[in-house]
Amino acid sequence: MNWNLFAVFAAPIITTALTFILNKFFYNSPRLIAYYGHISEFKIRNPDGSVLDVYTHAVVIRNTAYQGTHKRDYMKFKKNRNKKLATI
Asked: Where are the domains of the chain?
């Protein structure tokens, strides 16, 4: 058997399979994106006449992962709940 010929054909197949498995593992991890809604500044006067600067901002955090942990847990719960309801 010619092992060089086998290696030439097997290497791309093994590499493709390994790449697919690693992509599934890494791309299903949670990815968070932060959106900054608005930034505001307020000047508040104290009774003694001094001015206090107050800065506020709104942040929205979004999970853009394919399937987060909470969704998997919910699907397990929903599946088990349906089994319990069917046996009652």
From this structure: 3-87
